[in-house]
Amino acid sequence: MTEEQQERLDIINHKLKFTEQRPTVAVIRSLDPIVLAADDMTKLINMAGGVLIEGDEQTLLSLNSDVLVLMPDETPIAQIMASIDQLLQLPGFTDLSAVKNNRLYIVDSETDNDDAAESTVETIEMLAEMIYPKQFMFGYEGTRWIKFTI
After folding, report:
1. Rounded CA gap, 104 and 97, in Å?
2. Model pTM?
3. Measured between alpha carbons, how far is residue 82 from residues 56, 78, 106 in Å?
4. What is the pLDDT of residues 50-66, one digit of tens each?
5. Would you say residue 67 has pLDDT above 70?
6. Coil, strand, or helix at residue 89?
7. How far apart are CA 1 and CA 132, in angstroms?
8. Is the pLDDT of residue 112 over 60?
9. Which of 10, 49, 98, 111 could cross-link to 68 by cystine, CB 3.0-4.6 Å?
10. What does the alpha-carbon distance between residue 141 and residue 124 come to, in Å, rounded to a whole number?
């Protein structure tokens, strides 16, 4: 990791230093069947200031996360949007706090940077934008992720 990349992460860490209540975040990695992100996202979500919820469809519905991120592997936003109806049809999905509070985000996970360290830093910055929209604006909204409102 370069010094510049570390500085970018340090800015996030510094801004979150005194945050007492960290929002819960569910990251959907597969829509059919619904699979929530696990160990590979824990560190990234933590660094972005959230607490990852792991599990399946039942976990998603029962733990009722503060933030919900749709990030199926190597899937462009348009393709996720075409599949979002199946989520909306799930009993209880539209009652989730994240959905009711307009904290549902769709990530274009097709655009990956060849530099692994840069890709990691960008992902953490994107997640920080979604988890703390009033504190972080790195400029990824609209290009790398969008907010989905029902």
Report:
1. 10
2. 0.93
3. 21, 6, 12
4. 999 999 889 999 999 99
5. yes
6. coil
7. 24
8. no
9. 98
10. 13
Task: Name which of 125, 142, 130 is nearest 70 in CA terms.
Answer: 130
DSSP 24-71: EEEEEEEETTEEE--HHHHHHHHHTT-EEE-SBHHHHHHH--SEEEE-
Beta bridge partners of 35: 30, 56
Please name the residues in contact with 6: beta carbons below 8 A apart, sequence gap of 6 or more: none
Element (H or E) spanning 16, and its range?
Answer: helix 3-16
The token duo for 62 is 């029962």
6: pLDDT confidence band, cut at 50, 70 and 90? very high
Distance CA 100, CA 39 (A): 27
Place of tokens 């933590």: 46
SS3 104: strand
* CA gap 19, 21 in Å, rounded: 6
As a residue count, the chain comes to: 150
